[in-house]
Amino acid sequence: MQTNGDETYWLCLTRTVQGSKLFPVSAYILFSYLNAFYRYPSLLRKIEERMTAEELGDLARNMGVKVGSLHMGWSLPAFYLLGRECLLSYGLIRPQDAAEDIVYVLDFWKRFQLARHRNDGHLTNREFGHRAQIAPHRLLEVFAADMFDCSSGDPLHEAAHGFMAATSQYCFLSACESRLNLHNTGPFRLDGTRQLLIRDFMDLGECSLPWLDGVAAEIPYNNLTVTMATEGCHFDIVDDWGSFESKPEFVPDMMTGIGLYTSDPLSGGYIPVGMGSAEELTATFVDLGNRIKDATNKLWMRMAGWSRDQLLDAGAFTYFAVIKDLAHIAGVFEVEDWFEIDPRAERFRSLLNDEYADSFLGELVGSITLPTQQRSPFTMMQHSDGPSGTITPLPYSILAGEDYVPSVGGTLPGGTYLDPKVDTYQTTRGKMTLSEYNAAARETRPDICSPEYRYLCDTWVKYNAHTDLANELYKIDQRTSRTMKGRGTGVQLAGGQ
């Protein structure tokens, strides 16, 4: 809890300030925190009835969906704990209340993170000096080999840059003017002068976000992953929000290689998109960029007609449902779980006007001045040196028998001012109904996560590269590679291993 509090303060004070002329951002953020506190424990337990946090973490390494550092590394614990902090400040709960929920949510988070971060060995990006090296060697080898060279001014470079600019704008809008639909992982070393950054664009098509129904009908992929080689800069920060900083500052001219993939819970890994040739990839970027621009215009028109309650709901759902893809992976996603406001959170709607929300959120994650956040005057908070802390700890007195309320209970039927979700979901197997999607997800297990291969990490490969099992392991990620299909461990490993 303390670690998440310290990281929340650092992220909120050092990253880009968020605001909007359309959405009541502060209000919907607070609304989402309250919804998360009341719903995350029961929804995570529902997911684990089907699939453990460790299994989810293993699967998450093999797809570019909403299970990254921003979504699971920071948002899951932070949204939940900040919702608790809100209720503590209102005097509605005590520090010891919901103790069993708190322990469970943080235990789920820790188990997921340790599984997903198996290759870098860290619980958060913060622990790794703000970097994330999630992907295994065998996948990075394919990404590096299959990228097409590009340079400033050539058709591929221009098309890729145009696509990423348009898609970033679309993702920002579709996430209600927040950063939750795009993400970065890395950096990875390509050689002495070049680095690899992996960028994910998520929830692009008709997906679980109700406001993309119809708007995104012509976008054929729900998730797209761009692999990007850079030269002339060093990414010294890729933080738990998936934001990056580099020295010198990264500019498009530094991009020297590019690749494109799609993935989801049904794909069994990353599937190349338009990767047959540089010309095909150029045309693919142009086509997708045009589709994205058209969807962006349609989405602006839809959102411009929303009431404040609809804007508030959509923003709250964007934040609260940031971990919804866990339910998609497990095949237990239900619209009412993730796109309704719990009645216990609904009680606060009238309180969350813009003036109050801006001030309260500023105190909660910025100045850290709420009475519940104050600690001993001898305390020096990390990063601020003030006598305060973002998150109130659990009191140890419950171990000695002090009374506490164990849980907030199950999910209660909620509601929303938004239009109902249309029963259409864009997947790597085409458009499906939700029942079809859930059934397919329950039946899908990538070969790489089968019992035979699941625990064959990079350390094992280092000492067993000569074996048939290692060879077959590498062939799994090479199946769709343009340059490495069937080569197994025949390619020399990084560092001459």
What does this structure look like?
- This protein is α+β, with helices and mostly antiparallel strands and 497 residues long.
- Among the domains are: 2-128 and 308-400, no CATH class; 450-497, no CATH class.
- Helices cover 42% and strands 10% of the residues.
- It has 16 helices and 10 strands.
- The protein has helices at residues 2-14, 25-48, 53-60, 69-89, 99-116, 137-146, 155-174, 278-304, 308-320, 325-330, 335-338, 343-346, 354-367, 434-443, 458-464, 468-478, and strands spanning 148-149, 182-189, 194-201, 224-231, 234-238, 244-247, 255-262, 271-272, 425-427, 430-432.
- Strands 1, 2, 3, 4, 7 and 8 form a 6-stranded antiparallel sheet that branches. Strands 5-6 form a two-stranded antiparallel sheet.
- A hairpin with a 2-residue loop joins strand 9 and strand 10 (430-432).
- Helix 2 (25-48) packs across helix 4 (69-89), helix 2 (25-48) crosses helix 13 (354-367) and helix 3 runs parallel beside helix 5 (99-116).
Summed up, what is this model?
With 497 residues, this protein is of the alpha+beta class. It has helices spanning 2-14, 25-48, 53-60, 69-89, 99-116, 137-146, 155-174, 278-304, 308-320, 325-330, 335-338, 343-346, 354-367, 434-443, 458-464, 468-478, and strands spanning 148-149, 182-189, 194-201, 224-231, 234-238, 244-247, 255-262, 271-272, 425-427, 430-432.
